[in-house]
Amino acid sequence: MHFNKAFIDFFHQLDENNNRDWFNENRKWYELAVREPFKALIDELLPEIHKLDPSIRMESKDAMFRINRDLRFSHEKEPYKTHMAAGFSRGGRKSQFAGYYLQIGLHHIVIGGGLPFIEKDVLRKIRIEIGYNTEEFQRILDNPEFRAYYGFVHGENRHEIPRSFSSIYEENPIIANKQFYYGALYDTKSWLFKGDLPELIINHYRAGQDFNQFLIRASSDFTQFRPGKTRKILEY
Length: 236
What we know:
BirA Bifunctional Protein, domain 2
């Protein structure tokens, strides 16, 4: 078990005193009760994540997000997040390859993965891959383990997509998504102090492995046209 009650107590106090003066006065508390235990958990998870995806070669310092909020790109006014987070993917936690995500905060633990932010050219590749391999993609979504842990795939759905994808949209509306990610939510107090928390996290990641690999295949080198196979998609 990596955490103790001081982890939750810190975030409870930060939630009520979210300013730089208070944080600087309590920085040692943050380092000892929050950052170091979270880093130890990440260090334990990384070898298991590497087994799921050997292309993920990261150190904990590269996987962890900062607790400081970038106020230039946030609607929030508080300078600090009330959670710790980490991302795991080839090319780094902010790469355009699907990966895994972990967030532990005052109230919730979030375990998930996929691609929440997708550049236009990568989105196009993913849509093409779904169009060529609709049945395979649907089998991944219908996998009982994926369904049990996550239920369904999240993402903003614009409904307005390029005309070349319209026939596929009728069968599979998810092709209109601008993001493709999944997540499960747990109560922090119920799970944070359990010894099997790392196992819970890895089991979730394993359930999302096929979904991630589909997106990675699409992002890196999507399926090429094969003679004899009807091409339903036009370039745009």
